[in-house]
Amino acid sequence: MIRSLLAVLLLLAACRSGREYVAPRASTAELTYQAILADGSRGVAEEDEALWACELGTAAMMVRREHEAWEAFHMASRTMGTLESTPSESRRAILGAESTKRWKGDPHERCMAAYYKGILYWRRGDLDNAAACFKSGLFADSYSEVGEHQVDFAALSFLLGWVSWIRGQDEQARFSFQEAAQHAPENLLFDDPAPRDHNVLAILEVGQGPRKVRRGAYGSMASYQDIPTSAAAVEIRVDGVSQGVSALATDLFHQATTRGKKTIDGIRKGKAVFKAASTTAGIVMINRGARDDNAGLVLAGAGALLAGALTNASADVRYWTLLPAEIQFLPLRLAPGMHEVDVIVLDQSHRPIPGWKKTFRCRVEERPGQLWWFRMQPGLRVYGLTDRPEGN
Hints:
By secondary structure, the protein is α+β, with helices and mostly antiparallel strands. The chain has twelve helices and eleven strands. It has helices at residues 2-15, 29-42, 49-62, 66-80, 87-95, 107-123, 127-142, 154-166, 170-183, 252-257, 263-292, 295-310; strands spanning 200-206, 211-215, 221-225, 233-238, 241-245, 247-251, 326-332, 337-346, 352-364, 370-377, 381-385. It has a five-stranded mixed beta sheet with strand order 6-7-1-10-11. Strands 5-4-8-9 form a four-stranded antiparallel beta sheet, with no helix packed on it. The protein has a two-stranded antiparallel sheet with strand order 2-3. Helix 2 (29-42) packs antiparallel against helix 3 and helix 4 packs antiparallel against helix 6 (107-123). The relative contact order is 0.15.
């Protein structure tokens, strides 16, 4: 009887574990993009829609579908911008898996959604909305669930400074550049960004962002793991002439792992303790009740065991898999006209990694503040957005 009861409880516990969203990954950005679209055509659960949109937006940028990326990030922001959970979501998270709540991202993921929206607005020529996006990203960086505040997302500060300078807002630009330099003191480019001396800003994304995993009793705590990469920096050569090497602005592993602890972690810890205590007490009561032929004690033990079995203490480990590990910058001063631009990925010793290079044909326009975006992907791949989007 006891063995049959245990089997039933284990089956019920398995049913409570729920389905977890896993973002598709493929060998190339093109295949990843198609796989994400296929997921969408099959239907994405409501709680995963914002995460799916973020993955789609990133992949769309790599395959040069800027308008689609812009729409995807706007779709995601409608959910990510509302941090509160509905009462029904909170009840489901307390009684069952936390992953039943709508994904809204950790602070660094909300920062990145604002960062990408700002880039896409900038490339469309809408500097007002680009600045608003960078400011909203900095606000997301300042938010923590336990009241701690920190704003150290230097890449957003630098981008806001650059856009502010183009818009003629010198005081805002000066403040933002100082903020960027304060939070990335090793980046010598931030000491004197001098956008007046450059007409192109290259954004270079390197590596693969941190992976989110479970740890602790019953996997009740979420933790980020760094993913090593051989890429350390990027050199840009224009018409065969080196324009310099990129410098680090923001390390996303650092951003992901230096936040205040979430209040939901306390809930999960309590659930893990409750699950362990209920399970142990239930087994003891059932065994003693069976030995003493006490049906009431067996029933009480079964109830405790059932409560433990149905308590899902697993942390939510959904995360934005297509984020980079680092954001780097390199300001450029180039003559208007067509240029051959070589993007060369360097190792820790700043030596070119064999085969990790791509050449772009780029037009430099007679205007300040042209923005180029490049992404270095595993498999020696380089993706980029350089020319002005069509229709802009």
